[in-house]
Specification:
Layout lengths: L2 H14 L4 H8 L3 H9 L6 H11 L3 H6 L5 H54 L4 H28 L2 E3 L6 E2 L3 H6 L2 E2 L2 E5 L6 E7 L5
Antiparallel strand pairs: 1-2, 1-5, 3-4, 4-5
Helix pairs in contact: 1-3, 2-3, 6-7
């Protein structure tokens, strides 16, 4: 999606309604800066605002995402193109999130071992008090747990899990993901479609 084109289209439709950025922002319960960013092409409206924005400007969602008015002949084709683009962007975003998950997990693990080893060596060779060694180990462990929980949230939200039996793809709850035994990104969970428990593997797309 072309953010610059969408932003110019929003500005054009707003001005056609004789509305200022402040008036549009007030109706959408957002800031003037948010509307300015949309119209300058620096960001897109949040999904929670899109329907109301389209209603105010009297345009369709497809027209908003396309950045121009559509006639009936091109509407369906453009709707499909917008849908495919949205799916593509979600998949790319999920891939980035899963890479970030690895970085967070490694950072938490390395921090824990660095603090633990530093504390033990400091206690043994550098006259570090026992309480300081314990505090360093405990702090490192807390960082490790926080990093793991945050990384798990990313893994749960990004992409889907695929059942090994029926190949149904689904997004489990955070609790289900947390409690599921796992091997790398495959987790032993109950499929909501067939009801069987298998090691469901992480995939990016909703469909094969």
């Amino acid at each position: 999606m072309d953010q610059i084109k969408i932003g110019k289209f929003i500005a054009e439709k707003r001005k056609a309604k004789n509305m200022t950025q402040s008036q549009l922002a007030e109706r959408l319960c957002v800031t003037d800066r948010a509307v300015s960013k949309w119209e300058c092409g620096r960001s897109l409206p949040d999904t929670s605002n899109i329907l109301e924005l389209c209603e105010i400007l009297e345009i369709s969602v497809n027209e908003l995402l396309t950045g121009k008015e559509l006639n009936m002949e091109s509407y369906n084709a453009q709707a499909e193109a917008n849908l495919l683009e949205a799916v593509k962007q979600k998949e790319e975003s999920d891939k980035r999130l899963l890479r970030i998950e690895i970085v967070i997990g490694l950072t938490g693990t390395i921090s824990f071992f660095v603090l633990l080893i530093t504390g033990v060596l400091g206690y043994r060779y550098w006259d570090l008090p026992l309480w300081a060694m314990i505090a360093m180990g405990a702090f490192g462990f807390v960082l490790f747990i926080i990093a793991c929980l945050f990384a798990l949230r990313i893994e749960q939200k990004a992409g889907y899990y695929e059942c090994k039996e029926c190949h149904h793809r689904f997004v489990p709850t955070y609790a289900q993901t947390l409690l599921a035994p796992h091997v790398h990104r495959s987790r032993y969970m109950k499929c909501p479609h067939c009801g069987k428990k298998t090691y469901c593997r992480k995939v990016i797309s909703e469909k094969e």
